[in-house]
Amino acid sequence: MKTIHNMFEHLSWANQSILEALQNVEVGEQQLSLFSHILNAEQVWLTRLKGKDSSQLPIWSDGDITVCTKLIKQNEENFKTYLAEIAKTDLDNLITYANSSGKEFMTSIRDILTHVALHGQYHRGQINLRLRADGNDPVNIDYITFVR
Prior knowledge:
The chain has 148 residues and is mainly α. The protein has helices at 2-23, 29-49, 65-85, 109-133, 143-147; strands spanning 94-98, 104-108.
């Protein structure tokens, strides 16, 4: 659990770092779309982890920095609560859920949590690429920077 907690602390830090960068530059539509996708996906996965239907939640939506700001805080609080609740749960327990196409899967809690942490990092890298292409400095969101 310690590693998973660290990964989610990094996720929150990295999301906040990207948010601050996007608040200080002229943001392109692609950057906001990617950022809102990260945050929407976090909500979708948390909903699935709780055994609820996520089919009505957006995966992609129009980017809005104000909405992103709210989602960061909400997701961080909700994942902290969830991680505290499952502290004594077997992380290899399987969760049954349907993806956005309605196809059903069974995946372990551990693998879902690992996916959520890594998924955001992938898209934050895409945001950084677009920031650089627009003449802005990319945000150092490397895990080692976080732990230092």
